[in-house]
Write a structure and sequence with these properties.
Strands 3-2-1-4-5-10-9-6-7-8 form a ten-stranded mixed sheet, with helices on both faces. It folds into two domains: about 110 residues, HUPs (Rossmann fold, 3-Layer(aba) Sandwich); about 130 residues, HUPs (Rossmann fold). Helices cover about 40% and strands about 20% of the residues. It starts with a strand and ends with a strand. It is built from nine helices and ten strands. By secondary structure, the protein is α/β, with parallel strands linked by helices.
Length: about 290
């Protein structure tokens, strides 16, 4: 992974995600782009305004540019303990966050988008807070959601949770994970959360064949497999994040899988376990 994109609204949580991402960028030798979407009221129908003075629009963009410059200077002033120092560029434009991320993500060949979230009390809060769900649904780039409680420490283990419904897509994502894990010398734990009382032998063969394929094609020795039985599945993810000694949880976002189920069902509203680790979401269509 060579270039990270950081959408920011200059909030404390967004700044924490930026510092977390800067630390990660140094470790994997990736450059950075910090960006801010400036909301011009006349461009947003819900604002109820007919016009917006040009000079005021320019002032909003200037204020945004000044804030981005301060963020860049603060990062660049940090003491360096490793040799690589990411190159940092700043961009802003009027419009929505989704439009901005999709624009720069494509034109700048971004490998990973990193955003801060507004809550850390369970995966449901992590995903449902503010614009997180919209970002997951509409961005065709890998997206790392960083909760406020995420510790800024070296990444040593990444868990990839899968239901094995699309092995080809899973393999594609594992290759992307390897590009992140290799410079970190981090472990990749492939895990299956299941709640069936009984699983057919044919399904176990699917898992065995998949892991053989990983061993033959991944060209990365630090990959392991573990299954977790839990009902509902989201409780298994909670348990994994709390007790699995992992630093990042990775998943593919597609219909009827773990992430999709987190948006449905009352059980997600009752989750109380704190999950202070980032969630890496791979889009199903990318």
């Amino acid at each position: 992974m060579k270039k990270f994109l950081f959408p920011t609204d200059f909030s404390a949580n967004a700044k924490h995600a930026l510092v977390y991402g800067y630390s990660l960028a140094k470790q994997v030798k990736a450059n950075m782009m910090i960006c801010n979407a400036v909301t011009i009221p006349a461009e947003m129908p819900q604002a109820g305004l007919v016009s917006w003075p040009m000079e005021d629009s320019e002032l909003l963009l200037k204020d945004s540019s000044d804030e981005l410059k301060l963020l860049k200077e603060k990062l660049e002033s940090k003491e360096e303990t490793i040799s690589f120092k990411p190159s940092i560029t700043c961009r802003n434009e009027s419009g929505t966050v989704i439009e901005m991320v999709n624009h720069w993500g494509h034109s700048e060949n971004i490998d990973l988008v990193i955003i801060g979230t507004h809550g850390s009390s369970g995966l449901s809060t992590l995903l449902l807070g503010n614009h997180s769900r919209m970002m997951i649904d509409e961005i065709n780039k890998p997206l790392l959601l960083v909760p406020p409680a995420a510790a800024i420490t070296p990444v040593k283990k990444i868990a990839f949770a899968t239901d094995f419904e699309n092995p080809e897509k899973d393999m594609e994502c594992i290759h992307k994970l390897i590009s992140l894990a290799r410079p970190l010398n981090a472990e990749i734990l492939i895990t299956h959360i299941y709640n069936e009382e009984y699983r057919a032998a044919t399904f176990q063969r699917v898992i065995d064949q998949f892991m053989v394929k990983v061993a033959d094609n991944a060209n990365y020795p630090n990959i392991y497999y573990r299954e977790v039985k839990a009902r509902p599945s989201v409780s298994g993810l909670d348990w994994l994040c709390e007790h699995g000694n992992i630093d990042i949880l990775a998943m593919v976002h597609r219909s009827h899988n773990f992430i999709d189920s987190l948006f449905r069902g009352s059980q997600t509203q009752k989750m109380a376990n704190h999950i202070p680790i980032p969630l890496l979401v791979f889009p199903a269509s990318a």
